[in-house]
Design a protein that fits this description.
Layout: H1 2-14, E1 18-22, H2 25-28, H3 41-44, H4 47-50, H5 53-58, H6 60-75, H7 81-92, E2 96-100, H8 106-118, E3 129-130, E4 133-140, E5 146-148, E6 167-171, H9 180-192, E7 195-199, H10 211-217, E8 221-226, E9 238-241, H11 244-252
Helix pairs in contact: 1-11, 7-8, 7-11, 9-10
The protein binds 2'-O-acetyl adenosine-5-diphosphoribose (OAD).
């Protein structure tokens, strides 16, 4: 492992452009449940009953309640050393694109913390492309207007003040397309990256899971950090086994 850490550090150090792709594993040490690991959300809940447009049409109150529960849970969590290390990397160096499948906003919070501690005015270079949306926003299911997440609405989704349709969390559900501008920017970054660093994702959900392959096909290298093997492991240039909260600070600096 120390040798792999050294190799990964050197690859990252020498790269001009780095794409970092994160998944639920990166937030696991903050106490946010993953989806498919032990204790993961999709082991206790059925996605088709909670995370599809059809589920929301059928029972908006149930879907809303589940997302309000997740929002409450995330409000109790804080970024961990993995988030902090990535945020500091993105503020210290040019050429870093952070892409996350997570909707928990912890990369944003780490970016603000890192900007404060490094004395940097603008945390934006450390804000991720959120390819699956963000729980800290709502979106009107009718007119599409985005607003800050509503903290009320215990008995179901509030109505949009513009058009009257129910609000929904601004996240991507099963069967929905990703925002083409957001995934397009991520794919462009993958194409030009010398290194794609993939952390804490099962690499099962496309198109996000296809980003490392884009880098690999354009002669870049792929470094994976995960507790367990994934479908990406066999084709990764380096695969580091361990918790992202420990391994990321070792390979990108803390
Ligand atoms: P998963 O729950 O599918 O996978 C989590 C991955 O993180 C697994 O490979 C674990 O082995 C790994 N892991 C867990 N804890 C870790 C730790 N502390 N350090 C390192 N690795 C750890 O989560 P995602 O891959 O993010 O989509 O799931 C992808 C998408 O599926 C999510 O964005 C969500 C879900 O359905 C939508 O909601 C659209």
């Amino acid at each position: 492992m120390p040798e792999l850490v050294q190799q990964a550090s050197a690859m990252l150090e020498n790269a001009q452009r780095i794409l970092v792709l994160t998944g639920a594993g990166v937030s696991a040490e903050s106490g946010v449940p993953t989806f498919r690991s032990e204790g993961g959300l999709w082991r206790s809940y059925r996605p088709q009953e909670l995370a599809t447009p059809e589920a929301f049409q059928r029972d908006p109150a149930l879907v809303w309640e589940w997302y309000q529960w997740r929002r409450g849970l995330i409000a109790e969590c804080a970024p961990n050393p993995g988030h902090h290390a990535l945020a500091r990397l993105a503020l210290r160096r040019d050429g870093i694109t952070l892409v996350t499948q997570n909707v928990d906003g912890l990369h944003h919070r780490a970016a603000r913390d890192a900007a404060d501690s490094l004395g940097v005015m603008n945390p934006e270079p450390a804000f991720p492309l959120e390819v699956h949306g963000a729980l800290h926003r709502d979106r009107c299911s009718g007119c599409g207007r985005r607003t800050a997440a509503c903290t009320e609405g215990d008995s179901g989704p509030p109505d949009c003040t513009d058009c009257g349709a129910p609000l929904r969390p601004d996240v991507v559900w099963f069967g929905e397309s990703l925002d083409p501008r957001v995934i397009g920017a991520a794919q462009e970054a993958a194409l030009h990256a010398d290194v794609c660093l993939v952390a804490g994702t099962s690499a099962l959900v496309y198109p996000a899971a296809g980003l490392p392959e884009i880098t690999r096909q354009s002669d870049g290298v792929v470094i994976e950090v995960n507790l367990a093997p994934t479908p990406l492991t066999a084709s990764a240039t380096l695969s580091l086994r361990g918790p992202t909260g420990e391994v990321l600070p070792m390979i990108v600096g803390s």
